[in-house]
Design brief:
- The protein is an alpha+beta fold.
- It has one domain (21-85).
- The protein has 2 helices and 2 strands, in the order ββαα.
- It has helices spanning 36-49, 54-85; strands at 22-27, 30-35.
- It has a two-stranded antiparallel ribbon.
- Strand 1 and strand 2 (30-35) form a beta hairpin.
- Helix 1 (36-49) crosses helix 2 (54-85).
- It is elongated.
């Protein structure tokens, strides 16, 4: 087997390491790291959707997801209370 070739004579897939380098984003006082490709996609989406920045986009998306989670947790609590009171089985 040739050292330059991978399994069964096929060349291994070479992915540029630059696409995996996390890029920091500052949100308020916190920093998060995003892969270069994801950051580029977020920048394009933020611009086309009318956000003033990637930070604004990420903040909005997080707020929406957290609100969904809080609503589902609230619904579970209501169901638990109704079960405890005997209104539902």
């Amino acid at each position: 087997m040739n050292a330059e070739r991978g399994v069964k004579g096929k060349r291994p897939l070479i992915v540029p390491r630059s696409s995996f380098i996390p890029r920091p984003i500052v949100l308020g006082k916190s920093k998060i790291k995003l892969e270069k490709d994801l950051l580029e996609k977020a920048e394009k989406y933020a611009a086309s959707a009318g956000y003033s920045s990637v930070e604004e986009l990420i903040t909005h998306l997080l707020e929406k997801e957290i609100a969904k989670w809080e609503e589902s947790e609230g619904a579970k609590e209501v169901e638990k209370r109704l079960r405890g009171l005997g209104y539902i089985d």
